[in-house]
Design goal:
The protein is α+β, with helices and mostly antiparallel strands. It has one domain: PH-domain like (Roll), CATH 2.30.29. An 8-stranded antiparallel sheet has the order 1-5-4-3-2-8-7-6. It starts with a strand and ends in a 9-residue tail after the last helix. A hairpin with a 2-residue loop joins strand 7 and strand 8. It is built from 4 helices and 8 strands.
Length: 141
């Protein structure tokens, strides 16, 4: 779900916490070595996100926050902040080119450039969290 999170609205916060869980505690964040990505440069997006990003002339960037049951991908357009809320069961990660990752949720996607070692390390952490929260498959029964 794509939400405008510019303002502190209880209904929006409740939707986010229902979908991906409450934020990690400080102790959990410390144990995980951080839960947020650095600034990621967006290379391409799906049409609905693209229509938001073309409204201003700024460089298109985003960041990713890990939550217990999913991720929050935030980006800015004009003076508004938008969040793409993705539960782990709907998250699909692709590593296309050598320095590009694709984050998919159904028909929505964002492709980001990973040009630093820290970014590759974050996406490895994200893949591990997704695998850890994966429901057991038929072959696991």
């Amino acid at each position: 779900m794509l939400l405008n999170v510019s303002y502190n609205e209880p209904e929006v916060r409740e939707k986010i916490e229902t979908a991906v869980g409450k934020p990690f505690t400080l102790k959990e964040r410390w144990a995980m070595g951080g839960i947020g990505s650095s600034k990621l440069v967006i290379s391409s997006t799906s049409i609905d996100i693209h229509n938001l990003l073309i409204l201003d002339n700024n460089r298109n960037t985003c960041n990713v926050e890990l939550r217990p049951k999913g991720i929050i991908l935030r980006f800015r357009s004009l003076l508004e902040t938008y969040a793409l809320i993705i539960p782990y069961y709907k998250l699909t990660l692709y590593k296309g080119k050598a320095e590009e990752y694709s984050i998919y949720k159904d028909q929505q996607f964002i492709k980001v450039i990973a040009d630093t070692k820290a970014t590759h390390k974050f996406f490895s952490k994200l893949s591990a969290e997704k695998a850890k929260n994966q429901a057991p498959g038929i072959e696991d029964l």
